Amino acid sequence: MAETLLQVKDLKVQFATEDGMVKAVDGVSFELERGKVLGIVGESGSGKSVTAMTLMGLTGGVNSRFEGEILYKGTDLLTLSDDQMQQYRGPELGMIFQDPMTSLNPVYRIGDQIAEAIRTHEKIDKRGAKNRSVELLRAVGIPNPEARVDDFPHQFSGGMRQRAMIAMALSCNPDLLIADEPTTALDVTIQAQIIELIGRLKDDFNSAVIMITHDLGVVADIADEIIVMYAGQVVEQASTRDLFYDPQHPYTWGLLGSIPRLDRPRPDRLHSIKGSPPSLINLPQGCAFRPRCQHAFNRCMERPALESHLDVATHLDRCWLDVPYKRSHRDETISGATEAA
Predict the structure, then answer these.
(1) How far apart are alpha carbons 41 and 230 in whole angstroms?
(2) Given phi > 0 = left and psi -120 to 50 = alpha, else beta, which region is 141?
(3) pTM score, two decimals?
């Protein structure tokens, strides 16, 4: 059986502010095996990045509150000190941040930044670290890496900077790679190349990947399982195939309806879900998606549990609608949204 690398159990992350307590992550649970890819999808403010940053131990502070467990190879990462957590970042956990231009130091050469990550965790001299940096740049598809290793970040294109970030994240061969919106602000051709690269490197390094994005299309080909988050909660969780062919939550329908379709006439405008995500300080009563859901009814004033309503026990959703209603209305909602656009 595949090794279970990560178990997140009822994770809650809150931040104390002057306006109140921000419930950024509210009871998230999932498992991830070696060699698998988990996609986490949702709008901005849904809790995706906070979940990832908490896994890396980067959300600690005097105003932070944590509950639950993050078990990595049996060790609860939430119980570790900053110094102990530093031993996990790099050799065990690697992260590709959302914006490489703000994550890379503009006054240091690309090769020096990759070499620094290597030398922090390994006993290796400067020459050896630089040679490793060249090989990593070559592995992620940077042309002429022997010369480009001495370039500064502003001399790289957006796609090349993202590849450099991937090289840095993989510099210590981590078992778990977290990619936070790795294709943001990149054109579709470069997006496809980055996604293909992450999938290939996952196989080469036999690692697990958490892919965070707001676009279901990004994870369609690479993810084995998908979690859909809304207002800090998991509202649907299923295998990639089940989520696309048998979606159960109206929010998932809205996300699917916002994807342009090649088999239909080109719309004048792309569809968007009406309304805005709720405040994480003052969440709506009951279902968090209720104010934006066109299928809401009286029982939605009660908070639904995340559970299976199908024969597939691993397909979970957080919705009071019964399965026959969902299946009779979801295709109409998805296609209708696209046609209305």
Answers:
(1) 9
(2) left
(3) 0.91
